[in-house]
């Protein structure tokens, strides 16, 4: 049944990710951007200081000392699971150890193992380690335990091979100052987070397999349910939100039975939805299984199919290898997979079948997702994708109105925009749904071409200066307005600021909400080319 569900998805979409990511990375380089719970462990008491006085609170694992910064208190490096090392490498997350005394929660901890791209100017400065399952909480200083504030839980992007909850651009202080409790967390990425091998599948009592990074996300959400009331947050009013791979994670969490009841609202930005993942153990004609990729990796070290101890004994740097957004090491890294238990089908198939959580939902894209690519590279990408995915180019050019329009928009529409519209249409039949196009561009960077991939993130968090761009007063004003919409959605499920309320998506009206220099306005979602792409998939919204 799982195999059948997987086959429904378009057989070529797997190649979108690798082709697209190679284009993104190359362009960026050219442009210069770049088992039982563990026993209790003692924690050294923390002496109070002017920045930490009064910031001690108790959670289920022990007491925490946070740091006061104006109207916000931050608690960082809180373990939400045991370190996934030794026999817990490639294992579902286990409960964290309790501690005695007061744990210092004033500084960030490790990021998860990854190869950072040298051009990423917003990357975290933290060291990487397998010991990385920590989260951070920001709350208003005035928030008291049981305060029932809305909770926002951020899931980072990075192609499931990189990313961090400690990047300056996603510091949660400014969002928390608006009257929410903000949570960010690390989850395993690369081979540490997404890996399959026969030795793991045959391990007695193995539980869930393969998608360890998604398991981490669910473990973090369960931690929120148990503990967020201590920070003044309402566990019954949790919004999950993420961008790119984080947005894709939001969509998969909406489909996961294991995540039901852990959140009340969801916002997916630039999360795609069409890309089918490989099966855990079954090879398909167009997709080798994750176990096939895992065997290929193990073969490099002459590790046999039944030697799990040897796999887990590999040094972390060997497991990491050179995997990043443009390198899957010749097919020896599968990425996320359809495991048959946590992930049972592609996102588009799940939403089309109405299997998603029935919660208020925003699905958005940016107005020019691939806008940072040089024009010639964008045109090449559109042509290559049309060839690879067996589109008849002439009808597509006709659908877009011109060859230039096709070359400018097809790659982005295929990867981001059409899936977003498809998911919004499917969701709108059974739950409040809002379709978004983020089109605001920082004034100093605005060349009239639209908002590129991930440029919405600093606006969501209000951390414009963390980008290194020149920031104008109008940019700050727009960031405040954008934040108002997000906080309103987190509060009551309706994005509203002042007298402006977003238009819910319906298939009949077919309108999206565009956020631009003119503020928020509804426009037609009947964009050139999208219907032709949907028809090509043969899966109707």
TrEMBL record:
Keywords: Hydrolase, Signal. Residues 1-36 form the signal peptide. Pfam families: COesterase. Residues 56-390, 409-516 form the Carboxylesterase type B domain. GO terms for molecular function: cholinesterase activity. SUPFAM superfamilies: alpha/beta-Hydrolases (SSF53474). InterPro entries: AB_hydrolase_fold, CarbesteraseB, Carboxylesterase_B_AS, Carboxylesterase_B_CS, Cholinesterase, Type-B_Carboxylest/Lipase. Its EC number is 3.1.1.-. Belongs to the type-B carboxylesterase/lipase family. This is Carboxylic ester hydrolase.
